[in-house]
Amino acid sequence: xxxxxxxxxxxxxxxxxxxxxxxxxxxxxxxxxxxxxxxxxxxxxxxxxxxxxxxxxxxxxxxxxxxxxxxxxxxxxxxxxxxx
Length: 84
Hints:
about 45% helix, three-stranded antiparallel β-sheet, single chain, 5 strands, about 20% strand, alpha+beta, elongated
């Protein structure tokens, strides 16, 4: 898979309609600079494949939750600071 995707390709990967994807962009679900960028000129919007997959798998939310709780993920699924 190429590292950068058009809106159409990104929508196909996420299995949503293009207007739905654009709505998510406008609402800030997908953030410019993090998930996508607009190249100066006539390329249009390009999504970062890795950022889309991380969003789809929920890794972004998991990392944010761990950071908010001052928890450090360790090897073999152990989380330092979780009291486990």
